[in-house]
Design brief:
heterodimer, A: mainly alpha, two-stranded antiparallel ribbon, 20 helices, 2% strand, B: mainly alpha, 2 domains, 6 helices, 2 strands, 71% helix, flat
């Protein structure tokens, strides 16, 4: 019998809380803790995968915790929209944990690192699967607080503390906005269940309180989803974060933030078409600001952080267009997937470069392609996927986004999106040129060589996924297609939860 | 867009790459180049430059682009000041703008 989906959250939770004990027992064996973490997240991924046939049948799976019926009890509601994101979260969590097994040896406080890694993953998974606003807030806080700690992990570096403090302060105000919105909504409707809110909020269309709550929710989720002007914490926070965790925060947590934003906007609130212009403006401005800032960066991690902001704009663009065409849902969700995989891959490549050279300053790097050919190949494939060049998965997602733009009649915005892809090409060309091409710089103290196989394996796995799904995207498209249009998502969700 | 169209675009792109590689291979076979040390040296105004001297610094990349958009970059850099108080001000500003936009949007609809 297949395990219920809530075990995908509970099982890693036990491992996270057991990790300090395990760390005490396995004092000298950091790798064993890494293996346990990898297995815990892999178990979560496997439990989710067991529900794939039901999702492909177009079902919405509802789990009532403690058999309390909704809207009174806690529910997990899984449809194709969030199932896909949950698979991304756990899949990338496994790869990051695997990569860190070798990489973590250069760090201290291994037990804390793995506990935080599991908690971040669980937080993201919980945000994705939960069916009510208060639990979404709780999981959002688990994800946020553990990621603040991860950013501050290298506490001997002032920049890490500075980045973490900025992230903490801005993130806390963002989550406070979410909590305030929850209070407003509860005061008006008396419920926090997504489906119940969706059925009750149309009765309060003349009240201004739900609108204020929605504005607060958009603000709170936009901080994590890095939409301009709430994005500025990200580059400072990611520069001193360990590369694999930077990949998870940049690639996956922004996707989860955007998922939460669009889930709430589309499933819970009735003013869908009034919100569309705001979301479209935010997405296009995010694309432009992130892209332009990435062009002028000299630090590889900062460049990737700004690139991540720009790509969040693309995701938001697709999901905003979902109001007008179902292709927008496909483009947006596929780009969350593509960005998560490619950005994590790029950060893992930066981790490999730091592992061998000790720097991520582009001016100190050069000519690494001859010494680290597989890392160079992985970086180039990741960059091509972000730009959207065939035959990578990025081409599919970007193509769907452009087609959605044309179908929705947003031609000028689509042209801006295409132009920003050229800018994306420009800053990745610069990064590849500075880091991998040309003669090897004499500024490096070490003699770089290829990284160990355990670090290389997740990177090559991502390369394979990017290329395979670029040539044969059908498996991903078939899951996303089950989500259908925004209106059908809402109707199916509400019916399944409330019965 | 159908998946067949995606497959066709992918195949055209891969075929183009394959043709380019074949042309390079054919060219190198027909006109082999002996890479002597002198041939690889870089001369500029009579000076011999090392490879490292020839590399463009990150700041120098796309300088014309940056110069053209200098006024925009000035604003962007001012916005990314690194000061938390600035970022929090923007956050509060966003809440106000979003609220006004939503109320305006709903009233207009």
């Amino acid at each position: 019998m297949a395990m219920e989906i809530y075990w995908a959250i509970i099982l890693p939770f036990f491992v996270a809380f057991g990790m300090p004990v395990l760390g005490h027992v396995l004092e000298e064996r950091s790798r064993a803790r890494g293996v346990v973490t990898t297995l815990a997240i892999l178990a979560s991924f496997t439990i989710l995968l067991a529900s794939l046939p039901s999702i492909l049948d177009g079902k919405v799976l509802v789990y009532e915790i403690g058999k309390w019926i909704p809207p009174y009890g806690i529910v997990l509601a899984v449809d194709a929209f969030n199932y896909f994101i949950a698979l991304i979260v756990t899949g990338i969590g496994v790869a990051v944990a695997l990569y860190s097994i070798h990489h973590i040896e250069i760090q201290t406080a291994v037990t804390k690192f793995y506990t935080l890694l599991i908690l971040t993953t669980i937080g993201m998974l919980g945000v994705t699967l939960t069916g009510d606003l208060f639990n979404l807030f709780v999981f959002f806080e688990i994800m946020s607080i553990s990621s603040y700690a991860i950013v501050a992990f290298r506490s001997n570096r002032p920049a890490a503390i500075e980045g973490a403090l900025k992230y903490l302060l801005i993130g806390s105000v963002g989550t406070s906005a979410i909590l305030l919105a929850i209070a407003f909504l509860y005061s008006v409707t008396g419920t926090l269940n997504f489906a119940d809110l969706a059925s009750k909020l149309p009765m309060f269309q003349n009240s201004v309180v739900p609108l204020i709550a929605l504005a607060l929710l958009i603000t709170g989720f936009s901080v994590k989803g890095v939409l301009v002007p709430l994005h500025a914490w990200k580059p400072d926070a990611l520069v001193e974060t360990s590369s694999e965790m930077a990949g998870l925060i940049a690639g996956v947590s922004s996707g989860v933030g955007l998922y939460a934003l669009f889930r709430v906007v589309y499933t819970v609130f009735p003013y869908t078409y009034s919100i569309a212009p705001l979301l479209l403006i935010l997405s296009v401005v995010t694309m432009i600001v992130g892209g332009l800032m990435a062009v002028i960066q000299t630090d590889l991690k900062r460049l990737l952080a700004y690139s991540s902001i720009s790509q969040s704009g693309y995701v938001a663009f697709g999901l905003s267009l979902a109001l007008f065409t179902a292709t927008g849902v496909v483009g947006g969700l596929f780009h969350i997937f593509n960005h998560a995989i490619a950005k994590t891959l790029l950060f893992l490549c930066v981790g490999a470069i730091i592992y061998r050279t000790g720097t991520h300053d582009m001016n100190k790097l050069g000519g690494l392609a001859s010494k680290m050919p597989l890392t160079a190949l992985a970086f180039v494939v990741g960059a091509l996927a972000i730009i959207g060049v065939p035959p990578t998965s990025g081409f599919i997602s970007k193509w769907y986004l452009y087609v959605a733009g044309v179908e929705a009649g947003m031609i000028p915005l689509t042209i801006i999106a295409i132009f920003m892809s050229l800018i994306t090409f420009a800053y990745y060309a610069k990064a590849i040129n500075r880091v991998f091409l040309g003669p090897r710089t004499t500024l490096l103290k070490n003699h770089p060589r290829e990284i160990p196989l355990s670090m290389l394996m997740p990177m090559l796995f991502f390369v394979a996924i990017i290329l395979i799904l670029g040539l044969y995207p059908q498996p991903v498209i078939s899951i996303i297609n089950q989500a259908g249009s925004i209106l059908s998502i809402k109707a199916a969700y509400v019916t399944a939860v409330l019965g | 867009m159908s998946l067949i169209q995606i497959a066709v675009v992918n195949q055209i792109f891969l075929a183009a790459i394959a043709i380019c590689l074949l042309l390079v291979y054919y060219n190198q076979k027909k006109y082999p180049v002996k890479r002597t040390k002198r041939k690889l040296e870089v001369y500029a105004c009579g000076e011999r430059l090392t490879g490292q001297e020839m590399q463009i610094y990150s700041e120098g990349f796309y300088w014309a682009f940056k110069k053209t958009l200098s006024s925009i970059y000035k604003q962007l850099l001012a916005f990314h000041s690194g000061k938390v108080s600035d970022y929090l001000t923007w956050l509060l500003f966003a809440i106000v703008i979003f609220t006004l936009f939503l109320i305006g949007g709903v009233l207009w609809a």
